[in-house]
Amino acid sequence: MYSIGIDIGGSKIAAGLLNEEKNLILKRSAPFPGTDDPECSIAVMNHLIDALLTEGGVRIQDVAGIGLAVPGSIDYEKNLVVHAYNLGYHSFPLVARIQAHCPDTQVFIENDANAAALAEYYCGAFRGYATGLLITLGTGVGGGLVLNHRLFVGGKKNGFEFGHITLVYGGELCTCGHRGCIEAYCSATALIRDARRAAAAHPESRIAQAAAGDESKIDAKLVFDCAKAGDEQAVRLYEAYTGYLGAAVSSAIAVLDPEIIAIGGGVSNAGNFLLDPVRAYAKEYAFFKQHAKIVLADMRNDAGVVGAGLLHLQRG
Amino acid sequence: MYSIGIDIGGSKIAAGLLNEEKNLILKRSAPFPGTDDPECSIAVMNHLIDALLTEGGVRIQDVAGIGLAVPGSIDYEKNLVVHAYNLGYHSFPLVARIQAHCPDTQVFIENDANAAALAEYYCGAFRGYATGLLITLGTGVGGGLVLNHRLFVGGKKNGFEFGHITLVYGGELCTCGHRGCIEAYCSATALIRDARRAAAAHPESRIAQAAAGDESKIDAKLVFDCAKAGDEQAVRLYEAYTGYLGAAVSSAIAVLDPEIIAIGGGVSNAGNFLLDPVRAYAKEYAFFKQHAKIVLADMRNDAGVVGAGLLHLQRG
Question: Which CATH superfamily is A125-297 part of?
Answer without folding.
Answer: ATPase, nucleotide binding domain (3.30.420.40)
